[in-house]
Each structure stands twice: as structure tokens, then as C-alpha cells.
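Subject: complex prediction, re-run

Hi both,

The earlier run crashed halfway through, so I resubmitted it with identical inputs.
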Amino acid sequence: MNSEKRGPGFYVLTAFFILFVLFLYGPLSTIFILSFQGPNGGLTFPMNGVSLRWFENLLFEQQAVGDFGGAFSRSLILGLMTMLTTVVVSLLAGLAFRRRFLGSGPLFYLTIASLIVPSILISLGIGLAFNVFGLEPAWYSSGFGAHLTWTLPFGLLIMFAVFNRFNPAYEEAARDLGASPWQTFAHVVLPIILPSLIGVGLFGFTLSYDEFARTLMTSGSFNTLPLEIYGMTTNVTTPVLYALGTVTTLFSMAVILIALATIAVLRKRRARRLAG
Amino acid sequence: MTLSRIAPYLQAAPLTLILAAFLVLPIATIVMVSFWDYDSIQIFPDFVFTNYEETITSPVTWRTYLNTLKYTVIVWAVTLLVGFWVAYYLAFHIRSATMQMVLFLVCTIPFLTSNIIRMISWIPFLGRNGLLNQSLMTMGVIDQPLEFLLFSDFAVVLAMVHLYTLFMVTPIFNTLMRIDRALIEAARDAGASAFQILTNVIIPLAKPGIAIGSIFVVTLVMGDFITVRFMSGGQSASVGLMMANQIALLQYPAAAANAVILLVLVLLLVAAILRIVNIRKEL
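This time it finished cleanly. Structure:
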């Protein structure tokens, strides 16, 4: 196909794709611009001057409602907990699924079920279960478990994709050279799949950091950041809402870019080592 | 020798335990509580069918379920159309693998940012004094602001398409990338037109991806409540929203009965999709 000339279909679809990207990023860029609204400006255009007023208000002043700092640090810690657990548990399960074992089928379907059961059901179910067992729900216990039901299926599916493409000849070579199973894993398998594990970690962190529906009934008495933002939408009428949106989106994007850069560096280093 | 025999069980144990504690047990609890009784202050163990009876006999329930299905069908159709062509463009029209990866990431990054913020970001665009109304009025297309843009069914569908299209793009892109290019070559040599190649070669081979994307979108829309609440301004109903309201009123058994019905409905829809398309090859 590569040697052909571009047909009219190419230009139509290019235009369509550009429109799609504009549709994805356009609204986000409007709140990004409006977060620099002047001190007297409102929630919509036109811009009434340009200022950092709303960022100052967000970061340094006491809000009438909510606790942005506390919610952010809770979401950050929860995201990191979810990320680490997702990476370790998906990796282990991915390794398990490379062989047939009793119950592998049901476990697989259970994992997929975790993905398709509506979030609000998980939220309600965990909330009720804690209630029935007389436990106090909290973001680091019930909320943590709720997030894992969402991140683990993604992690496992990524591990499936990784191990489907994994060439077992590398492991056989290591074994023939006398490596123990642990040495084979640590020095052969792990370095090869490391970039994908960072991908799993990225999913684990960002999905947890942004999760709303599954946190709703499971976070206990303290809000995570998405719950806090949702609370703000009902009673904040100044552009400080957009400033918050801009700050948290930039934070997400920074996390994504750092993860992607790390993956790129690891790939390049490995390619160089194979070449040298 | 024995260690290697039990190794898969040890490796699968953490996943199994987490899913047992936070998926199986909670759903079992929902089923149990859906038979419990409640008054205005508390819920108590019982075995009554009143929660189901009240849910099923109420016309509000039926209207809400129909409305949710309406959203599901519209959002599914739009995301399928948009998602297929985006995936098709990336898979067949972008020639360098690097460019493919970059453009795919451009589509993926918004998915990894907050849904709530992506919803909020429509307000300055669609609102009464929003960007769209302002520009349409300046251009003289309309005299007064269009009211239906925000806080309406239109806004709900738009926001859902915005949030969920990627779930359609990724699996379809994945299947399209695996199509052996020689098949398309062969079809062309045999005299097939571009349209015939699309309908006789590409779409049949993309079916598993389409099915996986459809399962994602259908289950996400069926269970959604935050998009409906936020983008309709409380004017439209969905099953998820009805449950959220029952939860807020502490009517847990009623919410649980609703949850069971929703779960059964979602599983039936997924089973229907799987009956039409066999996705096993894809996994």
C-alpha cells in the first residue's frame, strides 16, 4: 500500500481526524485559557484581562468550601498505592496465566467481569459490604479496593499482550546457560518487559487519580480530588474551578509524559545494548 | 518440582483474593441487601420481594431504563462511527510506525485525564454565553442563544461521546493493525473496489475489535450517572442516577434491587454482543 499515491479518501479522513483531535482538546484548552481570567472575569468568555489571580486563590487562600490540598495528597497517595499494587499483582497474574492452571478460565472471566460491571455497582456493593461487616469505609481501604477492581483488569490485559509476544527462546537460552528460575526472571524476563510494566503503572496511577464513580461510596469521610472537584462544581462560581482543572490536568499530563519518556529511554538503551 | 507445580497458584492468588474481596463479595452483598427491608432511618435483614416489586411496577423505572437505553444506542452508534474511521485512518493511512504511535498517543492522553474536568470544560463552550453561541450570534446565524446546547440530552450525548470514543478506537485499531496487508493486496488484484475491500475484507476482520469496543461503550453508558447528572443539569434520568439518588436517600435495598436489575440487563447485552461476534481469538 505504501507505494501508492494519496487518494481523495486520505484528505477527507485527515480532515476528519483533525476535527476529532480538536474535539478532544478544544474544550480542555478553553478552560486552560479561562483559568487566566482577570480578577473580575466570569466563567465564560470574553476574557476580562489576564491574571494569575485564580491560581493564587487556589493555592494560597483558604477556600470557602473544600480542602484542595488534603484532597490532592489523598488522591496522590491512593494513586501511588494503586499503581504499585496493580503492577505487582498484574505481573504475577500475567506470569501465572502463561501456564494452564486449575481455575484459570473462571479467574479470567472474573477479571473481565470486573471491567464490565458498572462502577456504581462496585461502589454501592463495597459500601454495603463494609456496612454489613461493621467496618468504617475509608479511601485507603474500601476506596483502594474499589480502584483495584478497575485498574487490575487493564493491567492484566496489558500483561497478556506482552506475554503473547514474548519469545520463550530467551528464557530457554538463559536456562541452558545454567540460570536459576529467579535469575532468568530477574536478568532476562524483567528487563524485556520493563517498559510495559511502566505502562501498567501509568494506567494504574492515572485511572485511580481520576476515578470518581467507584470512589463515591467508598471513600469514607474524606474526599479524594475528583470528589472534591465535583463538590466544587455545585457551589463555586468563579474561575478558580478552571484554575483547579488546569492544575490537575497539567499534573496528569506531566505524569503521562514522564512515564512515556522513561519508556522511550528504556527502549533506546536496550536497543543500544543489543546493537553493541 | 512441586514448587513449579504450585507456582501459578501462588502467582494468581493476589488477583483472586482482591477480586473475591472487592468484586464477588460486594455483588453478593448487593443481591442479599436487595431482599432486605428498610424504613426512613435504617435497613434491616429480611427476605422480601417488595424492593423488586416496587422497582418493576413503577412507571418511573421503565421510563428511566428506556432513557438509559436511548443514550446507550445513540452513544454506541456515534462512537462506533467516529471510532472506526479514526482507527481506520491511523491503521491504513499513516505510513510510518512512529507517526502512528504519536497520533495514537495524542488520542489516548485525554482519556488519562479527569472525566469531571473534561465535562466541566464544555461549560464555557456550550453555555448560554458560551463560545459557540457567541460566535454563532456574531456571524448572524442566530438572533438569540441556543438553549439546548448545555444541560440537555444533546449535552449528555456529546459529553459521553467525548469521554468514551477512545474505548472504541483502541480495540478497533488493534484488530485493524493485525489484518494481513496481503489480503487487501489480493482483494485489489482480484478487482475489488475500495468500497468492496472495506465491506468484504476490512469490516469482517475488524468485528472482534468492534465487539470489544461496543462492550466497553455499552457498559460504560448503561452504568453512567455522573455525566447524565452533570450535563443534563438534573433534567434527565438514567438508571445509575436513579440508584445514586436512592443511595443519597439511604434507600439501600431499593438501590440494590435496581443494581441487580441493571447488572442482569448489562450482562444480557454483553452476552448478545458475544453471540454475534466471537472475540475469543482476540484474547
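Chain A has a mean pLDDT of 87.

- K.
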